[in-house]
Amino acid sequence: MTSPPESGCPKRMEFGPCGGVRPDGQCEMRPGPCAFGDVVPWTGPRREPRPVTPPLVLTDFSCAPFDAQDVAETAGLLARSCDAVLVGEHQNKPDFPPSLMGRLLLDAGVTPWITLSCRDRNRVVLEQELRGLRSVGVETALCVTGDGRGYDVRPDVTQTFDLDGPRLVDLAASIGMVAAVPETPTAPPVAARPTRLVQKQDAGASLAVLNHVPFPAMIADFMQSARAAGLSIPVIAAVAVFTDNVSAAVLQGLPGLDLDPSVTEYVLGAADPVGAGIEAAVAEATALLSIDGVAGVNVSGLASASGTRVGAEIKAEVGRRIREVAA
């Protein structure tokens, strides 16, 4: 692989920019603009995407950390409402190692997509986890560079960034994993984000998961540009699920993500915010699934401030209704 010149990126990225660029173009890791003025083209081996059947409903999985029983019980709530679960990796909430979590979820009867972040693992450990996931029967890894650890979150812990997302995709694909990738359509440089997703496809990505946008029309525009640039892999679009101020704030607090203010006002002001939140999520999913190139939706978010179990019940209902509408 021919590496681009040193970028000066605090995440040590070679194939940037990441999805955490602030709306004003500032870096999420340090004061000043993003180190990348444009998308860096992939210069490694170009890999053909693996043919895969994308999930119609991919649901965010959250449970009590380091609790195998809660893993099984939460998976049981979601199993009949989705085709796969997406296990995130959060800077402030460590949990079981990916290979172990994958095995627990398979045993519980769901298909796991496991997120692997370059933030907390060096190159060797990333390869160990990819091979471990494959050995226990997990087929898909969501390959991410990872958001920067907040200055007040575990200040005693280093941030590794031996690889970035595209190089992790290359590693995952080289050992036979299905590599899924994220993309943030609203992060600067917005006009270049479709091209960046195509670069990840060239590195070996077989599936893509788009982050939240306020309006489905923005995804339609993104998909039109991405297809024109050569994107051929299936795309999963995110559906925001929230039923109270806390679960809405979690979605709005991430770089590049926002909610439709009119929908937010409707849900939070409703006499039954849980019912309104479910209704709004299903309506958003229906709109997204009508877009050419969108193969499925990611039922995403905390869903409720009342705990992960309540959140899982809400997301399960959203998933069930989406499948009914799509049937």
Could you provide a short overview of the structure?
The protein has 327 residues and is of the alpha/beta class.
Low-confidence stretches: none
- Structural category: alpha/beta
Globally, the shape reads globular
**Largest beta-sheet details:** 8 strands, parallel, barrel
Distance between the termini: 45 Å
Which radius of gyration do the C-alpha atoms yield?
18 Å
Strand-residue fraction? 5-15%
By DSSP (H or I, 4+ residues per run), the number of helices equals 10
Number of strands: 8
Q: Mean pLDDT, nearest integer?
A: 94
Helix content: 25-40%
Helix and strand succession?
EHEHEHEHEHEHEHHHEH
Widest sheet: strand order? Answer: 1-2-3-4-5-6-7-8
Structure description:
With 327 residues, the protein is an alpha/beta fold. Helices cover 38% and strands 14% of the residues. The protein is built from 10 helices and 8 strands. An 8-stranded parallel beta barrel has the order 1-2-3-4-5-6-7-8, surrounded by 7 helices. Helix 8 packs antiparallel against helix 9. The chain is globular. It starts with 56 loop residues before the first strand and ends with a helix. The model has no long low-confidence stretch (mean pLDDT 94).
